[in-house]
Amino acid sequence: MNKSQLNEIVDFLNKVSFFSEVAKTSLMELCKDLKAEFFEKNECIFQKGDIGDVMYVIFNGKVKVHENNHVYGYLSQGDCFGEYALIDNQARSASITTVEDTEVLKVERQRFVELMSSDSGFAKGVLSVLIKRHRELDIIQESLAASKREIELGNTKMSGLINGAMDAIIMFDGKFRIILTNPSANELLKNEDVVQRNVLFFFDEKSAALIESLVKSEPDDNSKPFNNYLPEVVKVIGSDDTETLNEGTLSRYGNENETFYTLILRNIDERLIAQEKINQLTTRTKYLEEEIMQLTNSHGILAEDQSMVNVLNLIEQVANTEATVLIQGETGTGKELVARAIHMASDRNDKPLIRINCGAIPANLIESEFFGHEKGAFTGATASRKGRFLMADKGTIFLDEIGELPLDLQPKLLRVIQEGEFDPLGSSSTLKVDVRIIAATHRDLLEFSKEGKFREDLFYRLNVFPIVVPALRDRGEDVCLIAERMVQQFCGKLNKSVEPLTQEQKNLFLEYQWPGNVRELQNLVERAIIVSKNGQIDWNAIIPNTMQKVKVNDSESSGSILTSLELVQLEKENILKALRQTNWKISGEKGAAALLRLRPTTLTSKIKALGIVRPM
Fold first, then answer.
1. β-strand pairing of 95-98 with 44-46
2. Using one digit for the tens of pLDDT, what is the confidence trace for 386-429?
3. Phi, psi for 109 (deg, rounded to 5)
4. H helix count then E strand count, the chain
5. Burial class (CB in 10 A: 0-12, 13-18, 19+), 224
6. Helices 517-531 and 478-494, interaxial angle, to 10°?
7. Which end of the chain has the least Cβ crowding within 10 Å, N or C?
């Protein structure tokens, strides 16, 4: 090593903290015997447990201090490691591996001891550094002592927080053994001595399986703690066999060696009444969000024909009044859309529109649905419930299929219309409501009242402002307008593309009578888009055939005689027509058997005999 290199190393060591108090003349003596060694990236310099007699100073490069895969830290230029090897023969306490190409200077124990004995300046400088380090250690110890006191105080506060919590707190390990509980948990478990017991023993079978699955479903990486709400209410069974329902959270913490879990439980028995109120609000929200345009999906009211334009004019006239409206029309004509349009154009449009299908609610429940009930009003009434009229307060209530309303409930509805008040089931209190009423029916209510099936006074109360929605067959070109809009809607929904309707295809829509009105049109269009291929739709196969009727009339007028095969074919076409009109429903009041005036079993036999198969 030449003089220039020697001076460079002396200057370097003078900046190293271990030699910072050593005079340069003494460092010059040390450097005369100093050796340098080069290590490549990821090369081990020494391993934990090795016996060494050398201290290393990093001249350039970077190393990591580690034990197997656990890294304690990193050292770089100017840092020293292996200092204890200068004074003893003990094993290395950690392994050192390079992170990049590294050059180190090696200070051997024998040379270090010689200089400490022979060079007082060298010994004084090293001792000065060690004394300075010792003082720094004293400061660190004082700081640690203060930190210990803070930790103890923090633990006291934490214990107070845990023990004072109203919720039950249960900590357990990865084997489900309880390691800590607070007094609330002991009270919940009805046991003061639960430590080391299996926490799952205090739950019913279903709840224990839930907690076990949550613990086992989490990844093994403890460096990523989790804190989850329990997805279901769990049942705790105390040591005295008491049972309580609880909601809670489950969290995990720990390290690579140990995992612990914290289960926090809250008894919800006292919250049932509050939960019921939340459920009532949720129910109201569902009614507000209900897709009230189900008859024609989201296609709105499309009208160019004068018959439907007149309906829109009537909606505009009555919307801003408080008049009761009776909407009449065949099934599937869009009466609900008219009701929604009236509500949205009224001054009540920022308040709820509540719909009741009078024909869809069982007779024994409809009064409760209308007016609500008190707890215990009837079997199964475990809590009080608001009725739809109270939900609709300050808004609008839509009574769909009003003709199906039971006779015994009609006087109570009449009272609400006349006086704006009602009595919930099981209550002696009278409630007042401000509700705008819109009713709808496909029946002739006046004729119904003459037959004794509907109260005449209620009919006149509802019929303040009648609106008749025309059948689709009476709306001229509107059927094509609506069909084209539906095609666009379903193409977007089903991610398909089809050719626009030709005039010939539009004629098919105009020729058909549409007994199911807009609802039937919607079903046929959706079916057509589903079965379309390469953008083409065979509308002749989709729209029910109306030509057979013409052929029959022609045959009757000409006086021609049909063969037995033609009669069979005619019967087959007639049955197919009935099935299409009823959407292939056989039984029931609106089934094909009723249209054909046949027994359902007879019609089923004929369908099999004629080889009739429902198209896919």
1. antiparallel
2. 888 989 999 999 999 999 999 989 999 999 999 999 888 887 78
3. -60, -45
4. 22, 23
5. exposed
6. 40
7. C
Task: Of 606, 557, 558, give the one whose Cα is nearest residue 578.
Answer: 606
Helix (H) or strand (E) holding 579, with range, is helix 564-581
Q: How many CA atoms lie within 13 A of 135 on its CB side?
A: 5
Arithmetic mean of pLDDT, 476-481: 90
Separation CA 116–CA 422 (nearest Å): 105
**From the CB of residue 192, how many other CB atoms can be counted at a distance below 10 Å?**
11
Confidence of residue 616 (pLDDT cuts 50, 70, 90): low
Strands in 80-81's sheet, in edge-to-edge order, are: 35-39, 102-108, 54-60, 80-81
The answer to whether residues 292 and 353 touch, using CB atoms and an 8 Å cutoff, is yes
pTM value > 0.90: no
8-state DSSP, 508: H
Instruction: Decide if 516 contacts 523 (C-beta within 8 A).
Output: yes
What are the tens digits of pLDDT across the range 438-455?
Answer: 999 999 999 889 888 899
Q: Which residues of 162-183 are buried (b: 16+ CB within 10 A; e: fewer)?
A: beeeebbbbbbeeebebeebbe
* Distance between CA atoms of residues 392 and 408, nearest Å: 22
Q: How many C-beta atoms lie closer than 10 Å to residue 279's C-beta?
A: 12
CB-CB contact of 445 with 407 (8 Å):
no
pLDDT at position 549 is 46
